Amino acid sequence: MLPFSYDPSISIRFGPGASRDISGVIDEMNGRRVFVVTDPGVCAAPPTGDVVRSVLDGGRETEVFDAVHANPTSELVDRGVCLARAFGPDVIVGLGGGSAMDCAKGINFVLTNGGRIEDYQGFGKAQKAMLPGIGIPTTAGTGSEAQSYALISRSDTHEKMACGDRKARFRTVLLDPELVATTPDEVRARAGLDAIAHALESYVTKTRTPVSRLFSEEAWSLLDGSFERYYENPGDVDAASDVLLGAHFAGTA
Questions:
Q1: pLDDT tens digits, residue range 127-152?
Q2: Is the dihedral of CA 100, 237, 13, 61 positive or negative?
């Protein structure tokens, strides 16, 4: 068996309504200036919009960057960095699907360490501390909230860059099944299949470890038992909970 290391340093808060803890989590980080990275659809749709309003109403300065689109690009990261640099945040919140959380991590790289996002392709290239981050997924699929990588496409060549660093991980993740209950049908299907693929890939990869296999097995068990129910009835809280947790475990593996 190959040697491996495991660092479970992300704080996870899971359960219906977990996203309503956002103000308390920010206070625990002594956050006073909060930069929220999301997309227009998330801001407009309840209950995810309620999360944004909770941050805005928390008696702290807040800037919302809601220009995120699917497959975030280096140009999008640059736009977010310009806004964040002018604002001067001490906490970054990624709210949405995998694209929003990848973009939040990408912005954090460049904002705190300088240069361009292209400079961080690979792993461990951030030399300075990064801002504490909070990840709140609104889809059950990518598991980006569990990852230390941001997947960003180069605007010029469209090459997808995996930019990773332990410091890029969210300090706290809020897994709230109520948020994924409002996902549109097509997004719900694609995200769920993505999570299932991640669970399978992590189980069969040659670099798997005993710990990653435990996560992938649990992810498969949760997704196999609940994905169809969740797709047919997203309001089924038990099914939504299993799929959301399964997607997170698949991302962790």
A1: 999 999 999 999 998 899 999 999 99
A2: positive
Query: Is 106 in contact with 152 (CB distance < 8 Å)?
Result: yes
Do the Cβ atoms of 215 and 252 come closer than 8 Å? yes
d(CA 183, CA 231) in angstroms, rounded, equals 10
Euclidean distance between CA atoms 66 and 56, whole angstroms: 14
CA distance 23 to 13: 13
Cα separations in angstroms, 211 against 8, 92, 148, 208:
11, 29, 17, 8
**Cα 137 to Cα 126: distance, rounded to the nearest angstrom:** 24
How far is the C-alpha of 132 from the C-alpha of 34, rounded, in Å? 10
Question: Which residues contact residue 106 at a Cβ distance below 8 angstroms, ignoring those fewer than 6 apart?
Answer: 72, 77, 80, 117, 150, 152, 163
Q: Which helix (H) or strand (E) holds 113?
A: helix 98-113
Does the pTM exceed 0.90?
yes
